[in-house]
Amino acid sequence: MPNTVEAAGSAPYVIYFSSATNNTKRFVDRLEVDSDRIPLRPKDPFLYAKRPYVLIVPTYGGGNLKGAVPKQVIKFLNHEPNRKLCRGVIAGGNTNFGKAYCIAGDIIAAKLQVPFMYKFELLGTGDDVSIVRKGLEEFWQKI
C-alpha cells in the first residue's frame, strides 16, 4: 500500500526531502507545520501527494549544477500527480557552493513554473524559521 498523504484543512502543508544528515528535516520540524518526507532510500514506500504542498529541498552537488537536485526528489516529481500539486519551492544549501547556493530551488521552480519562495543555509536560523512559517501561512491564504 502506498504511503499516502491525508487531506486536511487550509493549514500550510510541506513535502520535503532530507539526506541522512537531517538538516532539512530539522528545519521543517522547527516550522511546526503539517509535513511529509520524501523517502531517502529506494526501497522505502513511495510518497504520493494528495493535496497542494510547498516543496522544501536541499541542494546537492557541492557547487556543481549537475546533481544539484537530489535523485529522490526527481523521482518524486517525475510522478505527474505529485508534480501538479506543488505550489512553491524552498531550498536549503551551503554558501560555500557559491553561485550554486540553493540552485536546486531555482531548477525546480523553473521546471514546475512555481515560485521559488525562500533560501536558507544548512539547517536555517531561528529567523529563517520565523520568516518561512509566516510566509507559508500568508501564502496558504492566497492559494
UniProtKB/TrEMBL annotation:
Q: Which SUPFAM superfamilies match?
A: Flavoproteins
Q: Name one Pfam family in it.
A: Flavodoxin_NdrI
InterPro entries referenced in this protein's UniProt entry, alphabetically: Flavoprotein-like_sf, RNR_Ib_NrdI_bac, RNR_NrdI
Instruction: Provide any one GO MF term from the record.
Output: FMN binding
PANTHER family named among the record's database cross-references = PROTEIN NRDI
Q: What does this protein do?
A: Probably involved in ribonucleotide reductase function.
Stated family:
Belongs to the NrdI family.
Q: What is this protein called?
A: Protein NrdI
User: Which organism does this record belong to?
Assistant: Winkia neuii BV029A5
Q: What is the gene called?
A: nrdI
